[in-house]
Amino acid sequence: MIKLFRSKIYLSIALLLTVLIIGIIGYRYFSGLSWVDALYMTIITVTTVGFTEVGPMDDRGKIFTVVLIAFSVFIFAYAISVITEYILGKNSLQLLKKKKVKNKIDGLDNHVILCGFGRNGMQAAERLKAYKKPFVVIERDHEVVLKHDPDILFIEGDANEDDVLKEAGIERAQYLIVALPDDAANLFVVLSARQLNKDLFIISRASLVTSQKKLRLAGANKVIMPDKIGGDHMASLVVMPDLITFMDKLSTEGENTTNLEEVSIEDFEGQVDCGSIRDLDLRNKTGCTIIGYIEPNGNYIINPEADTKLEPKSKVIVLGRPEQINKLNEMFNIG
Question: In this predicted structure, what is the pLDDT of residue 144?
Fold first, then answer.
């Protein structure tokens, strides 16, 4: 629709220029005016402002003026109507787009809210898209919002404002990722979000070590320092390069490249005996190996024993090749 409006605007501009050229040449030919006087006469004629003529005009000049006025009135009316239609149509499309986004957000539940669409925010969005986890992005930079992927649900506004968080569905959200570049802004968002949703799992970015404790006190469940992680990773490549390279191969980015999977014990119930890790027998059934166990209280057990008892609301971390992970998901309807 926008392309159609633009083509009409180009046509109206072309018609206006044509009228001006015809008027200038006509006055130059019929009345013998100079180029400047011909331009002046053309402008005051097509705009019907009624200024004084530059000199006496014979019958041919008067007839030409009448014809020029008649044509210019219709062309100007057409141009004005096209421009008005374009402006109103563009506004209507924007309103419809915002309403469509609002309806989609209102239909979300247990989704992720991502505050900030900078470098870290974009990386988080790519990972969430790869896992097909529904999410909403809050970004106050209008230019960033205009350039975004149409598949991403954006809310243009300041995440520090409660109304903006509510518009993103903060009361129904399961996770909040705060990736603003300023620690003070992140702290304020965490405080506001925790007041609006007591059960929300909040992950916040931090630039300074001193900000970590403050963010946790404000209500953040996890605080991530991207610069520290990057520095540790580079140093580890010097100390133990092969191990770190191997860890980098353990991709968790897409459904066809995943090597690690986090599975709730509830996903196995009714399909297999869930008394212990040995009872699951995932190695023989899918080829996957259980390398970690997360107890209901959040305690992590690395490389658990086969006789480890499985408790309700606990999870297991499994390792396998992509085809083995896919087999696990298909066998137990995990998705």
Answer: 83
Q: Is the model's pLDDT at 164 over the cut of 90?
A: yes
Domain end among 52, 70, 103: 103
Task: Tell me, yes or no, whether 165 and 179 share the same domain.
Answer: yes
Among candidate residues 281, 328, 288, the one with its CA nearest the CA of residue 306? 281
**How many structural domains comprise the chain?**
3
Torsion angles phi and psi, residue 148, rounded to 5: -75, 165
- Give the separation between CA 318 and CA 260, rounded to whole angstroms: 6
Tell me the one-letter amino acid at 189: V
d(Cα 168, Cα 191) in Å, to the nearest integer?
Answer: 16
**For 171-308, where are the E strands, in sequence order?**
175-178, 201-205, 222-224, 260-264, 289-294, 300-302
- Binned at pLDDT 50, 70 and 90, residue 256 comes out as low
**Domain CATH number, residue 122:** 3.40.50.720
In whole angstroms, how far apart are CA 157 and each of 2, 114, 146, 185? 26, 12, 13, 14
What CATH number has the domain bearing residue 99?
A: 1.10.287.70
Instruction: With H, G, I as helix, E, B as strand and everything else as coil, classify residue 34.
Output: coil
Domain identity same for 224 and 313 = no
What burial class does residue 139 get, using C-beta atoms within 10 Å of its C-beta: 0-12 exposed, 13-18 middle, 19+ buried?
buried
Give the mean model confidence (pLDDT) for residues 71-85: 78
Domain range for 59 is 2-103
Average pLDDT of the chain to the nearest whole number:
85
Long-range contacts of 37-41, Cβ-Cβ distance < 8 Å, separation of 24 or more = 41/65
